[in-house]
Design a protein that fits this description.
By secondary structure, the protein is an alpha+beta fold. The protein is built from 18 helices and 10 strands.
């Protein structure tokens, strides 16, 4: 299909007026009013309160309330012992009813507190659990108490994971370029044909990227008459600029010192130097020598979620004292500019940009009060088909230029994986009103299939053909999920998912 002309786009824009809403981040300006952006986003307090999960809120404060209560109880016991014992020691209270704390008084108070706790342990722990006449609790009550203890232990095994801070890279102005400047950078490489330049121009027009996106200085400098620098040194400089900035910002927001981090996970698909990016961060910020570090590469756009899942699993090992994990996700563009002319590789020159994100996670109960979010579920689905393996493939073209080839099957493959992912996470997030129809439909389809096989085996093919064909029930995920965060190239993936369902 030929691209629409600018006049057609302007006419369609005039006919299609955006309708602003209360939940819209960006509203269209009034006739005389100023242009609004995301900073003008407002929501009623009643709407915000309705979105709060109060069970998680109360659960966040329970550990602090429990410890505070234990401290108050211990203080009350000590105060009572002091009042009872201070009058019975040789150094009694003075005539002004003031207690003089000398060695004899302190010793007597310590012995008294010890006797109180021994008495409490004997009367309320040992005696109730004794069998026979000395026991206060019946066997049924003891069994119930034991079951409750086991349930409490199982619940405690699944520690909550809190997000303390999140930071993204804000590129300097010298890194930002427009679409026209990107095309000029491609022309300055002096390796692309006119057809390739026109193809990349069309890709940029449909990419959804803005006119101020970040490219690394090693490539941007070709706009000033310099040669493009794709060396390891320039690649490290890009990685250091991005990663150091977001790590410092994330630690500052979380109010943590670098030595507080127990686990470090960094993912970067196409740039994996030696020493690793983890070693670079540990050396720069002076982190602990016993920190657990993991450097993931070659895992593509899904590496961020994989890194969060890895950090979550590793935090489970710090169950009792709690731990902190730092997850960094980035991609280095400098060494990965494709210089050939095969269209399957040219997409990477227009789609990817400089950027990075860092997130600080904790499984400490006491961090729940200052956390931004709580991680409830992580689900990962990986396709094992041949077309899925080859849909994003780093290779060399016919002229030995290295690049990442994106297959036309990527939309179909991603749509199928997304469908499996939603099916896997459905039982965790969907209400029973949506899960019951799904199970009922599956059972009915199974019964109809078995009945059809029985009829065919009995020679009743015509009767078997008249059996109804019950379709799968597609649940409404909006009943269990309020917000969907889709990958930047995810619109085509969503369209592919719907095509697969059809």
């Amino acid at each position: 299909m030929a691209p629409r002309s600018q006049t057609e786009d302007e006419t369609a824009a005039k006919k299609m007026k955006r309708v602003s809403s209360e939940s819209s981040f960006v509203s269209m300006p009034d006739d005389d009013g100023p242009i609004k952006d995301y900073r003008d986003y407002r929501v009623r307090k009643s709407s915000l309160i309705a979105t709060v999960n109060w069970s998680h809120v109360l659960g966040t404060y329970l550990p602090a309330i429990f410890l505070w209560g234990v401290g108050v109880l211990f203080a009350q016991i000590i105060y009572q012992v002091i009042l009872d014992i201070s009058k019975n020691v040789e150094h009694k209270a003075n005539p002004e009813d003031q207690i003089n704390f000398n060695l004899e008084t302190i010793t007597a108070v310590i012995i008294g507190v010890n006797n109180v706790f021994k008495s409490l342990f004997q009367n309320y722990i040992v005696t109730p659990l004794q069998a026979g006449e000395g026991g206060v609790l019946s066997p049924d009550v003891k069994i119930t108490a034991l079951v409750l203890v086991v349930i409490g232990w199982i619940v405690n095994m699944d520690n909550p994971i809190y997000m303390l801070a999140f930071s993204t890279f804000k590129a300097p102005d010298s890194w930002k370029v427009s679409h026209a400047q990107i095309i000029q950078m491609m022309k300055n490489q002096k390796c692309f044909t006119d057809d390739s330049i026109k193809f990349m121009e069309r890709l940029l027009e449909r990419s959804g990227t803005g006119q101020s996106t970040a490219w690394p200085p090693g490539i941007v400098q070709c706009l000033n008459g310099k040669e493009t620098d794709r060396s390891i040194s320039a690649s490290r400089k890009e990685a250091e600029t991005v990663i150091f900035d977001i790590v410092e910002s994330a630690l500052k927001k979380a109010k943590l010192h670098p030595k507080d981090i127990d686990i470090l996970v960094i993912n970067c698909s196409l740039f994996s130097p030696t020493p690793s990016l983890c070693a670079m961060v540990i050396s720069k910020f002076g982190m602990r020598q016993d920190i657990q570090s993991f450097n993931l590469s070659g895992m593509g756009c899904g590496a961020s979620l994989i890194s969060v899942g890895l950090a979550k699993d590793m935090l489970q090992r710090h169950r009792f004292r709690g731990g902190k994990a730092l997850v960094v996700s980035t991609e280095v563009i400098t060494p990965n500019l494709y210089h050939g002319n095969e269209r399957g590789y040219l997409l990477q020159n227009t789609l990817f940009r400089c950027g990075g994100a860092a997130i600080v996670l904790s499984n400490s109960w006491f961090d729940g009060r200052r956390a931004w979010y709580k991680l409830l579920h992580t689900v990962r689905v990986q396709s094992n088909s041949e077309e899925a393996y080859n849909c994003v493939y780093e290779a060399q073209d016919e002229k030995d230029f290295r690049g990442v080839r994106l297959s036309k099957d990527i939309v179909k493959v991603a749509g199928k994986c997304m469908e499996k992912n939603m099916t896997t996470i459905g039982p965790y997030v969907l209400p029973l009103s949506e899960q019951i129809p799904v199970v009922t439909t599956m059972c009915l389809r199974f019964v109809l299939k078995m009945l059809g096989n029985v009829l065919k085996s009995c020679g009743q093919e015509k009767l078997a053909a008249k059996l109804p064909n019950k379709k799968h029930y597609v649940p409404d995920f909006k009943r269990g999920i309020d917000h969907f965060c889709i990958h930047a190239g995810g619109r085509a993936v969503i369209d592919g998912k719907f095509n697969v369902q059809r």
